[in-house]
Structure formats: structure tokens, C-alpha cells
Fold this protein.
Amino acid sequence: MELIHGLLNRVSIQRLEAPGPTPEQIEVMLQAALRAPDHANLKPWRSIMVTGEGLTRLGEVMQQAQLERNPDSDELVLDRCRKMPSRAPSLLVLVASPADHPKVPLAEQIQATAAAGYAMVLAAFAQGVGAVWRTGWVVEHPLIRQALEVEAQEQIIGMIYLGTPSVAPKPVPKIDSTNFITDWH
Ligand SMILES: Cc1cc2nc3c(=O)[nH]c(=O)nc-3n(C[C@H](O)[C@H](O)[C@H](O)COP(=O)(O)O)c2cc1C
């Protein structure tokens, strides 16, 4: 797929089914992420691939976390939390793993991680792998961070759901770019 075609046509796929990406497709996604802009080439991120039994276990932790947030959560809400990770066959947790650096502030290391995440979803799209990047309260909840062994200085930047699209991609919206650039002389 032409790069410009991918850039202009990538869309998230909200409904995903098995099979998940192959190891070769994941490797392409990782290599694309490793080519993202990155001040001082720090590669200040890591990722965790959750599949199979891991999705079930993570769902149980999310349910527990929801109960901690609101002990009065009803069964419907708890069930939705338990099933959250299993909305796709593969879930890639993208973790910013910044360290003190004399020239690269924390914010830039987070930005570099986000750039890596975008490269991942773009590379997924280019290979016909459906992807949707989600966050929400789950990325910050201590129980979930602990279960995924996220260190104190780290941040979960995205939970990138991956799989085979089970719905047609939505049409690409046409957006007038003139509001997004000004001239300065
Ligand atoms: C940092 C980040 C966090 C996001 N979190 C969510 C989320 O929690 N839930 C959601 O539906 N979309 C979330 N999105 C947006 C989707 O990934 C997606 O971009 C959006 O639905 C628009 O669809 P499109 O990518 O096809 O334009 C997030 C995107 C980013 C970059």
C-alpha cells in the first residue's frame, strides 16, 4: 500500500474478530513504531501483547477495578468491564517508559510514544489488520497498572485493539484543512 494512501485513508475499526495479527504483522508494526520520530532516539516505550487467557485475566482485573471505583456497580456494568479486553483477539498495551534526560523532557518522551503508537496503527491498517486505539479510566487504574506490571514512572498511553475487521471500514470524513494552518510572514 502506498504510504500516502494509507495516511489519507486509515480508519479505526471498532469491531474486531479472530484471527489476530500474525507474528510477522506484529513485527512490521513494531518496526514501523521504531521508525517514528524520537528525540535523541530514546525509544522511550515498550508494549505488552495480551491474547488468549491473558484477555480473560485482564477482564477479571478490569471488573475488580470497576468494583473498587464503584462498589455499587450493577451486574451489567461489571459484565461489560469483564468483557472489555475480549472485544478483539489481540490487545497491545502501549506503555511510555520515560527516564530523566538532560535534553529530552518527559513530555517529549510521551509524544515520541504517541508517534510510535500512530505508526503501529498505520502499519496495522497497511497490512489489513483492524485496529482501534482506546484509553479511558482503565489506563490509570492502579489495579490494572499493577496487573500489567507497569512501573511508577511509566504511563499506559494506549490499549490498541487488533484483529480482523468484522465490519466494513467507515468512510473517511472530508475535513477542510484551511482551519488547521495559517501563514506567518
Ligand atoms: C490517545 C488516544 C486515546 C483514545 N481513546 C479512545 C477511547 O478510549 N475510546 C474511543 O472510542 N476512542 C478513543 N480514541 C480514538 C480512536 O482511536 C479513533 O481514533 C476515533 O474513534 C476516530 O476514528 P478514526 O481513527 O477512524 O478517525 C483515542 C485516540 C487516541 C489517540
